[in-house]
Specification:
Layout: E1 3-8, H1 16-31, E2 35-40, H2 46-57, H3 63-87, E3 92-95, E4 102-104, E5 113-116, H4 119-126, E6 130-134, E7 137-140, E8 145-148, H5 153-164, E9 169-174, E10 195-197, H6 198-206, H7 214-222, E11 227-231, E12 239-242, E13 255-271, H8 276-286, E14 294-298, E15 303-311, H9 315-324, H10 326-329, E16 333-346, H11 356-366, E17 373-377, E18 380-386, H12 390-400
Parallel strand pairs: 1-2, 1-9, 2-6, 3-6, 9-11, 10-12
Antiparallel strand pairs: 4-5, 7-8, 11-12, 13-15, 13-16, 14-15, 16-18, 17-18
Length: 411
Amino acid sequence: MGRIVQKFGGTSVGSVERIQNAAKRIINEVNKGNEVVVVVSAMGKTTDELVGLAAQISKNPSKREMDMLLTTGEQVTIALLTMALHQEGYKAVSLTGWQAGIQTENNYSNARILNIDSERINGLIKDGNIVVVAGFQGLIPETNDIATLGRGGSDTTAVALAAALQADRCDIYTDVTGVYTTDPRAVKTARKIPSISYDEMLEMANLGAGVLHPRAVEFAKNYSIKLEVRSSMSDERGTLVEEEATMEQNLMVRGLAFEGNITKITVTNMPNEINTLSDLFTILASNGINVDIIIQNVMNEEKTNISFSIDSSLLSETQEVLAAHQEKLGFESISHEGSLAKVSIIGSGMISNPGVAAKMFKALSDQGVMIKMVSTSEIKVSTVVKQEDMIKSIETLHDTFELDARVPVQK
């Protein structure tokens, strides 16, 4: 007998029919003799609809009340799925995140899981129940308030539960058959990757690939959770996320990621002092502003310009925070450039293959794409380009690194 955590995303439970289909997949595992814990997202576009309702009430709703509102979406799903399992004659119990013992930090709308008290879930499993848990949510112990884990947080819930429950594996069911070399909606020649390492998947998730939440990959890596991303609509094998990918080791680049709505901020004529960077980014971090690519351009011994990229939705907030601290930071002015996108190549093969970045830059240059910013690590190169050049850049790089090449399919 094994213990399995299954996670079903919003599209996989987007209708009564799909909820019933998910129930059949759960029952299939139970009939194999496995103990099953299920994590679900809100149905379809429920979360977006709830956000829309809030926007009709308030332009700037309280984050606490938004968390109270948004968690209702998952509660609908857990109840309906549990009913579907009852209808098929199986014992099942639904639990909200806080009923499941998920404890988070004190941070509304984007909290991290601190601890999971699995006693209640273990007791329900021992009594022969399938346990259905609401993803995306937990409880702040200090205040007994509900907190959400941010977009994609149901992935994190599933993998964290798999770690806490010492599950044998965690299956992430979604509307695609696995992880692709890039988004197949953007590049028609994109293909499924049979196997990918935790590090590569983490880079892809952080850089815009929406198939898995970055925190979920972190949990999987830290606790060596066997993870498979697969379709809820077919029995086709998915993509294994593991410590070392067992396939395609000859490829320098394994995949591409991209995201739009990027804005470049430049803070000009800051004092060129030892604490300049520390002061600037400490202030931004303390105000919850997430900064991505950073470039420092030293003008002379006394002055420096610092540029960084942010999500465009944070532009107004960032400008307000910087303006409020202008005297302390000592800069002259702030400028920004919007309508940008980030395009990245990812692959562990880059470590042992010099010249990958040069190949990327030349391919983009040949297509007339202007590179605004660059960031690198051992297994990725990210560039910021104009939003209008994003898809052209991805298509070009997909061809350049031959990611549509046929490879053996995993059995």
